[in-house]
Specification:
Distance between the termini: 33 Å
Order of helices and strands: EEEHHHEEEHEEEEEEEHHEHEEHEEE
Number of strands: 19
Strand content: 25-35%
Radius of gyration: 18 Å
Mean pLDDT: 94
Shape: globular
Length: 294
Amino acid sequence: MKLVTYVYSDSKRIGVINHAGNIIDVSDIVNSNDMNVLIEHFSEIENSLKLCCEGAGKNAVAIDAVRLLAPIPATRRNIFCVGKNYYAHAEEFGNSGYDSSAAAGNVPANPIIFSKPTTSICGPDDAIDSTRDPYNTIDYEAELAVVLGKKGRIAQGEDPMSFVFGYTLVNDVTSRHLQKLHSQWLLGKGIDGFCPMGPVLVTADEFGPPGSQTISCHVNGELRQQASVSDLIFDIPRLIKTIGQNITLLPGDVIATGTPAGVGLGFTPPRYLVRGDSVTVSMNEIGQLTNTII
């Protein structure tokens, strides 16, 4: 099923998208308008949510009549992110002069994990404020994000995919100047509003096994990035295991899995985002996440 957080009649709500493509409010079923709560208690309410998907729903509203927020507008802690996780992007970034990681210029031997604060999250169609990077080095990074659904550390022999609740899209917006200036990635990537997320959260059963799906990024309609999820250097089970062996995973945790080649930094000269640019991250199974630079 496809889940959304949205604003309708000045009220924040959570809903499911039914077979007709409309939104049915499930806030009363969850007894909350917080997607984290739905994820945590999903096993208890799954059947009720599925019935909402199947029905016409007298309270259904058209998607065009609401304002979509990020599916999880406020994660319970920082978003886990993965650096240099597509081969071609690892090469373009390693050759850029901006790579201060231990694996500079090479494909990493192990996943590179960093984070983006929850305050960096924004939603579909939200504007990205260019004044927060006065150096004019704002870049885009289209990424598939994994949303986890249960609490615990991953034991030896346990299937990491059993922790997956679903998937969404993020744009790992970055100030390249700050990323290079501080020789790490948190400050350049953690700026307020620099993590668009959405438009929907697709449950794992509907999304299917990750691998054949294709992620794309267009800037002002021009295709800049495109790759199959199967091209990841470290696949999703490896990423979940790497994090979950030592850190207790929580329902609603988000892991952004890395970006393909084609970021603005990879061009000569770099093609950074400027005011008025429209960036769309897309995947057929999830939809389109569009944001404009102001």
